[in-house]
Hints:
By secondary structure, the chain is α+β, with helices and mostly antiparallel strands. It has four domains: about 1-65, Orthogonal Bundle (Arc Repressor Mutant, subunit A); about 75-130, no CATH class; about 135-230, SH3 type barrels (Roll); about 245-330, 2-Layer Sandwich (Alpha-Beta Plaits), CATH 3.30.70. The protein is about 45% helix and about 20% strand. The protein has eleven helices and eleven strands. It has helices at about 1-25, 30-40, 40-50, 75-90, 100-110, 115-130, 135-150, 225-230, 250-260, 290-300, 310-330; strands at about 55, 65, 150-155, 165-175, 185-190, 195-200, 205-210, 245-250, 265-270, 275-285, 305-310. β9 (about 265-270) and β10 form a beta hairpin. α2 packs across α3, α4 packs parallel to α6 (about 115-130) and α5 (about 100-110) runs antiparallel to α6 (about 115-130). The termini are far apart.
Amino acid sequence: MAESKRETANHRKALRLVEAKELLRAKPYTATELARVLNVDKRTALRYLEDLQAVELEEGKRPPQYKLLENQDLNPVEVLVTHSALRLLYHHTPGYNPIYFSALNKLARRLLEPAQSVALKSTEDLKQRFTSWDEGETLARVAEAWFKRRTVEFDYVAPGGSGTPRKNRVDIYFIEIARTNLALYVIGYEHGYHRALRTYKLGRMDNLEYVTPDEAYTVPADFDPRKYLSNAWGVVGTSGGKAVEVRLRFRKDAAYRVEEGGYPNLHIDSRNPDGSLEVHITVGTNKNNFPLELLSWVQSWGPRVEVLEPEELRKRWLEEARMVSKIGEDNGQHP
């Protein structure tokens, strides 16, 4: 008899879960509203929401509303893709913003275990790491400006410049994550000083405000971020100087890593008898036509790479290598 009652209760719960699932797919509900429709108490409705992994639409809003995600059941490959994207988002989170963290949680709840619990804990870690708005407020304003196409103004200190902030007025065309440092960069048309496409690091954009009146700009039909970034090693694309071809020789002990791929615009020219590789890379430059972004990557290989061309890059690479060596020698003379 007890077993029969348990089966009946489980069957009744299953039917209500199915009903709750269909209700939440149609529109958002608060726990109180769902309880009323299903004729259960609020505590039971909250358990149903947890069982169905319903998503809280806007964290912090009271009373909270919940909705069931469409296509919630991902296959393992889709879960892995979502997991990989979340790990990147976790590592490049620019600052505290409740909406950003809410979005991370929504994605995390679509994962399967064991990935889901780690993703949710990672978001909590971020909340502890960022206790103020810092870059998070800029992120929120940039997001709204891009999707609502609102022109923005902000102060910006360009690296290698005078060190004095300059006011920029920009229509945002695209937002990119740099492959080198996972930082966010804004690409857009600057109306004031440059009157051209420029790239700005989000972390250097200060005092960002919307330009009034609130008029939406139009992104030119011929703007293609893929083309713009085609010669970028980090994020410097066609907004810098002309693209140049760089030739490098990698030693045998580094050749296998280069051959594994993953480096944009890198082409292998020859495999030498000693096991070394000679390659060429087409890469963007800064306003002085120097491939500054590529230099740090080349230096990260240490003595396992040699710059062959262009001469300006080879000269700078050798000069900085000698400076590092001299610092080591000078420091070695002191106890």
